[in-house]
Amino acid sequence: MNVNRREFIKKMSAGATGIAVSGSLMGMPAKSYKRIIGSNDRIQVAIAGLGRRLGAFYEPIAAKNANVELMYLCDVMEKQRVRALQNFSKHIDYKPKLENDIRKVLDDPKVDVLINATPDHWHAPGSIMAMKNGKHVYLEKPCSHNMFENELLVEASKKLNKVVQMGNQQRSSHHTIEIIQEIHRGVIGTPYKALAFYTNTRGEVPLQKKAAVPNGLDWELFQGPAPRREYTSETWDYNWHWYGWDYGTAETGNNATHELDIARWALGVNFPLRVDVEAAKRHFVHDGWEMYDTMDATFRFSGDKIILWDGKSRNGYDTYGGGRGTIIYGSEGSVFIDRNKYHLFDRNGKLVKDNQSSANEAGTALGGGGDMTTGHVINFFEAIRGKEKLTAPIDDASISMAMVHYSNIAYRIGKGFDIDDKTGRMYDRDAMRLWSRDYEPGWEPSIH
Fold first, then answer.
1. What's the number of domains the chain is made of?
2. Are 295 and 332 members of one domain?
3. Within a domain: residue 87?
4. Mean pLDDT, residues 126-144 taken together
5. Is 125 helix (H, G, I), strand (E, B) or coil?
6. DSSP letters of 221-260?
7. What is the mean pLDDT of the chain?
8. Distances in Å between the alpha carbon of 271 and those of 169, 228, 397?
């Protein structure tokens, strides 16, 4: 946050409100006055990336207790900016600025926070740019495109002393926090295995074809750190997830980040010792989807602990009872947990406790948002103010992110590999060749 503003406000907070009311502020319009009252901790926010996650931020931005002002709505597609302004106008009584270029937003010294909801390849580079410009960052998953960015992001947050929270919002779920604490206190004995899963029925994806850049799209800025290529149809609007590795991190980066994070949290583990993967494209084999749509991954940890990932992007068979979730096995019982509930079982499989949460967080539907996200964003704001601890600080969240990268790398090189569970480095030359990526010259992320 702007230091001068904060220091001034701290000095003035004891008596300034009364002085202002009896002085010049009395002539202000009601809306302007309302935005100043209580502004001693007001946070100025910019959102970059106005696609399907936009709706997740209406409530935490508009909430009175959030005490924030939305300064910018930024996106490389004009119609996204226009739509975002229209939608936000239903929740706030002022107009944020619309901007195409994230760099212009980050150059504004009045901006305290970047909410980064851009495509995957922009996540770490854009967030590092923000931190270098003095901003704190709420960063949607996946927090990085590759392991190089993963490490650099953590280094930047520490060196530049910025608050960075990843959008693994189930960390702010009350029922999840409750049962994880119970697991850590021994309610199922010693937890030794977790199975994380995601099931969806994604359909056929168009083949990429060279096409004119859509009206209103800044294709140069969309590509940003990625190597330049000609535009192909369907790329900018979500299908970049499935069109190779230029922009996306496949379904594991798109969704496994959440459940793998819960699994790792429950087991109390950090980096794995080894990863093995079986993955392939098994549906609509001649469509435009260019990576696996089905993956089974196995992560082995010290202490004989194991995490399994079962990802089915295009087969809706309900294997475990719900579209996504995590099952934790312990020596004396088991737990099933998802975004809405948990079930606690004893060792004989008898239901001991059934907690049906009132949470309304979206599951497998595109877009989403809900009270978990709202709580997660509010927690981020309060951490900036020094009033709360982050529920998903980037140095911990990046370890869950590393598991995503390990599984994608194992798929891409066609073999599993061992990992240094202290540093996260991979003991495989082929794997280490994918530690980073090719960047467009001049766009390489750096904290210097």
1. 2
2. yes
3. yes
4. 98
5. helix
6. HHHTTSPP---BTTTTTTGGGTSTTTT--HHIIIIIHHHH
7. 91
8. 21, 34, 11
